[in-house]
User: What shape does this take?
Amino acid sequence: MTGEPVIRAAGCVLWRRAAAGGGIELALIRRPKWADWSHPKGKLKRGEDARQAAVRETLEETGITCELGPELPTVCYLVDNRPKEVRYWAAEATGGTFVPNREVDRMLWLRPAAACKCLTQERDRELVSALLGVLHVTG
Assistant: This one.
């Protein structure tokens, strides 16, 4: 890409079973620094593997614990002319409560079709399709 060292990150497409009407809902976060809606993710800490980082970042940004499922496609893009590689997993929510924090001021649980309309980046919408494929559910 640019010759710069790759920024390594990990995250989750966090889901839960919908309370009414069956199906699933996805957790989306709003980061005020970027004024965007996305899936929880963040940089790996030294010595941390991507699976650990995905679970840690999801908990830090959403307050939700989760169980990792299948790995989803890795997303690559540039940030300030540096390559960034984000590994994602499907992750079922297992508990917890969202509390706004310095990085994330809002979280929404949305059906997949509504989540796709809300997400800022196309690459995040593609992850919704990948999630639906691995869970064998429709949007």
User: Anything to note?
Assistant: The first strand starts at residue 7 and ends at 17. The chain is about 25% helix and 45% strand. The helical segments are 50-62, 112-118, 122-135.
